[in-house]
Structures are given as structure tokens and as C-alpha cells.
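Annex B, item 7. Sequence and C-alpha cells for protein A, then protein B.
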Amino acid sequence: MAEVISQERKLLKKSQEKVADELNMDQKTISRIETGKYSPKKGTFQKLKEYMNIDREICGTRLVAEEFELLELERDISREMHYKRYVKAEQLYNKLKERLPIKYNENKQYIVYMDAIFDEKKGKITEAETIKRCQEAFWITRKNCKIEDLEKIVLNKYETTIINYIARMYNKLNKKEQAVCLLEQVLKGFENSKVDVKYHYASVGLLYENLSLQYEENNQFEKALEFCEKGILFELRCERGNVLGKHIMQKTYIKERKTEKKKPANIIIGRLTNY
């Protein structure tokens, strides 16, 4: 909540003093809300949401559904996508799509994004069209956000996944610098936040991994190793090990390429994961 209020205010280019004055509030209250030291009452929170035109659920990172079965179905779809079993994933997705209430922005975003992915996988749309449709999905929950503003905000996990897929499409179009720039902007948003990055473990870990892979592909080995090291330290600091092995193996691979002891392999470990 603190991050969302702060970043939306900055996107509106208004100071804490200006917001406080226009809402007849104390500037210190705005400051305490944005630093997470104070949780606003329902009325205050609603006033801030209306003022900043926030129509999405705060901290919404998954689907909005009353039936737990639908969330389980979404998890099964993610697993099938992870293992590239796209036919099975689409079958499950079609079942979910029929039952998912679309009155919530999170659900609309999920549908627009997943439709784009399956169409791209089946060759129905080009990489450029996929980028356009993924951007449309992203803007469902971030309608005030321009791509160049990404370093000023903190994305939720699903928004980060969408940006990651856009970067993949830029990579396929041989726009590698654009892909790297996009991922680095998102990472800066997390790193500039007053909230510890460990609370965004999945998103930040994904960005470290993908930036290392992107730089390695561009033969920028020092930068690739830098993000490998960041990824390893981040996994240890968070006391997690989800992709620790990948980071270590990728680090070894990069060092071998850097010293020319091994030619570039055809198999790249975990290339731009998450769909």
C-alpha cells in the first residue's frame, strides 16, 4: 500500500504537501503512509484512491476469485507453461477463462495477456503484435504509467511477468538493448523503493536471472557476472534456493565463455524463464 500511494503521487507529479493541501490532510500523515509507518483508515484510504484515480486492488498480485479452485487452476496453468506443455496449458486456461469474473482489472489483465501468449505460441501473431497486446494488458492495471516511468514505480509479480515477456519479444526481434533497458528500469523501481527487495523475492529474482542471461547473450560478460553474483547473494539473503543452482551454473558458463575455454553452447540454462 505504501509503495502504491507513493508511486502514484509521483506519477501525478505532485508533492506530499500539495496532496495534503488538496485533501485537507496533514503532510506528515501522507509521509507516514508512504513510508509504511501508518496504515490509513478506510475513509482516508478511499479518499486517496479516488484522488489518485486508483481503481485496482492494492497489492493484488494474482487473480480475483471467490472459488479457490480457480486459483488452483491458474497455478496448474503456470506449471504447464513452465514446462512448455502449451497444449495442456491452453486446455486448462480455456476452462478457467469460462468461469473467471471479468469485472476485476486483475482478471481482465490475465486474460488479455494469456490470449496474447497462446496466439504468439501458435504463430497467429508476430512478435511486434505480441508486444503491443502485452502492453495493453499491462496498462489495464497501470493506465497512468508510461514505459519510461517504470524505474519510478514498483510492479507486482504479474506485472513484472508481463514486462519480462515483452523483453523476450524485443530479444526475438534482435532489439537486445531495448530488452535490457526495459528489465533494468523495472529492477530500478524495486531497488529505489523504501521497502526491502526481499519482500519482492519472485519478481527481483526473475529480473536478476534474466538480466544475467541477456548480458551474456550480448557478450557483456562482466555485467552478466555482476547480475549472477547479485542473484546468488539475493537467494542466500532471502534464505531461498529456487534458482540458486541456475545462477551458479550460469556463472560457470559465463566464466568459461569469457576465458574462451568453451565455445558458446546451443543450450542456454533457463533462458528467460516464466513463459
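Protein B:
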Amino acid sequence: MQLSLRLSAIASLVPFQAAVCDVGTDHGYLAIELIKSGRAKRVIATDIGEKPLANARKNIELSGVSGIELRLCDGLSGVEPYETDTVIIAGMGGEVISGIIERGAVVTKREGVKLILQPTTSPEFLRRFLCDNGFEILFEIPIFENGKVYSAMSVSFSGNRSKAEEYFYYVGRVTPETEAGFLYIKKQLGRCFECMNSLEGIAAKQEDYVHYTKAYMGIRAYLNSFKGE
């Protein structure tokens, strides 16, 4: 079994011999690889659905690995704080991931816990939530796979709430120095440009227009800073 580029990037952010909680494990492939590679000494793999857990159980049995415990629960509701030092929440929208972090604060805000997050949509919502709630984005890996771009984030709780420039919520710590990074930033630039254009001249939407204009101009300036302009 070979992991996708997306899952490989997520796995690369896991510290060696971590006690991992893989939230929304689905097929269990990531949990299996983390045990096989030695990245994780044990994994709690959770999912809200019985069918995904059944698929994961089958794949785990076929792989022959041990050290993976499956749990049926919503987010981190079935996980105790002392059971994990690394929480993976991937393959979901930014709003959903933010909700899981908030509801599981007893785990996610514990000292020394690393969060590895990979939103499929609304990364700007997630980054804003993290800044507003005392989490620090330490590092991001851009991923380009099957025509789609993502970012995998390494995050920890510092307790220091922060406010970033608008563009940061869209691009985070991704840089354009790789193809994947450039494409990721280009996508966010395009999103803001389209929203800005569609809202221009609509009196009732001027606040949103200003928001997207600031984000668009900020992303452009960020890109240009790498060109020495």
C-alpha cells in the first residue's frame, strides 16, 4: 500500500514514536503507515461512522500491524487528554476542523500536543480560527495532487491570540518556492480576485468587497516579495 502525496505529507509532520489520534480515519491507511514506519508507537483511529471504521478494521487486519485502536465517536469526544500527543484532523472543511478543535479543547489545548491539520476547503476560516483562539501555525507543506492543491499544517497551542494581515488567512506559511506552493497561492489569489470582481459596485456588499480586495492585494504583495519587487 502506497500513500497518496496528500497523506504522505501529513505523515511527514508526525514526530517519531508519537502517540497519535487520527480523527476521521476513514480507510485507516494513514494509521497503518504511521505504525509501519515507526512514526507512531500507537494510534487511536476515530470516525463518526460505523462503515468507515469497518473498512479501517478490515485494512488493518490485512496489513498485519498492531497498535491501532478503533473508536466510534464524533471528533475527539471519545479520547482522553493523556492518550495522545499528536492529533491529525485531515480531509475535511476548515469549518468542520475548527469545530472539532473547539469541542475537543481539553485535548487540543493540552501542553505539548501537536495538531496536524489539512483542510480541503475554507483554509482561511481555519487559519483565522487558530489565530483567534491562541494556536500557532508552525509550518505548512503545500501539496499538489490530481489537479488539486492543499496545505498540511503543523500547529500547537500557545495561548497567545493573534491578528494577522488578511492575506495570511488565505496563504498561511505556504511560500511560492515550490510548484505546489506557487499553485496554492495562485489558487487563493484567484479566489479573492473572483469574489472581489463579483462584489464590486454592489452597495450592500461593500464590506465584503473591501475584505476580498485587501486579501487580493496582500497576496499579490506577498508573491512579489519573493521576486524582490
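Comment on protein B: The mean pLDDT is 96.
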